[in-house]
Every structure is written in structure tokens, then in C-alpha cells.
Design goal:
This protein is an all-beta fold and 104 residues long. It has one domain: Beta Barrel (OB fold (Dihydrolipoamide Acetyltransferase, E2P)), CATH 2.40.50. 0% of the residues lie in helices and 44% in strands. The strands form 2 sheets. It has a 5-stranded mixed beta barrel. Strand 6 and strand 7 form a beta hairpin. It is elongated.
């Protein structure tokens, strides 16, 4: 799995029927320690991710292991939306801030 930020969407009006119905997201790899940005990839969205969210994605044959992408021509799939990560016991990123249970 790799960590990436959703930076956009990809629209395709003509495509193979095997990927019909997929929401396609443009992802930019990110190193969770240095926060340096890496390359980009287009991935099928299996979890309903949105712009500016951090996600975990799989590529290669692993991308065809989700319920949404099984046996379909897919090379990358978003399979989780990241809520937070910690490094050396310190929170490095949190999607939500504020009181527990709050979505602000």
C-alpha cells in the first residue's frame, strides 16, 4: 500500500466496459515522514474518497483484489481513506480536529 493525496479527478467518456462505472481519482504520492510529494497515478475509487483527502492505494495485481475491482482491468485502486497517522508516537496528521466525535 502507498500513501497519497487526492489532487483531482479524471473523466473519460469512452472507456473499456470493464472499468465502466469507476470513479477515477488523480493521486499524488506523499512520504508520510518528510511530507515530500512524489509521482502521480490514476486510481479507481473503491471507498468514496474526495479531493484533498489522504488515501491508501494499491497498485499492480493487488489492485484487482477489492470487491469493486475484482477481475477488472485496473492497475491502481483507492482502498482506504486515512483519518490520521503518527510517527514516533506523535500525531503527524489528523483529518479531523477538535473534540472527539467532532467532524470539524
Amino acid at each position: 500500500m502507498k500513501l497519497a493525496k487526492v489532487i483531482g479527478t479524471v473523466v473519460s467518456t469512452r472507456k473499456d466496459p470493464g472499468i465502466s462505472g469507476f470513479k477515477l481519482l488523480l493521486l499524488q504520492d506523499e512520504d508520510p515522514v518528510s511530507r515530500k510529494l512524489g509521482g502521480t497515478v490514476v486510481a479507481a475509487d473503491a471507498v468514496g474518497a474526495g479531493i484533498d483527502e489522504y488515501v491508501l492505494y494499491a497498485s499492480g495485481s493487488s489492485a484487482r483484489q477489492t470487491e469493486v475491482t475484482r477481475n477488472r482491468p485496473c492497475d491502481a485502486v483507492v482502498m482506504a481513506i486515512v483519518d490520521q497517522w503518527s510517527i514516533d508516537g506523535e500525531r503527524a496528521y489528523a483529518k479531523f480536529t477538535g473534540d472527539a466525535g467532532s467532524d470539524d
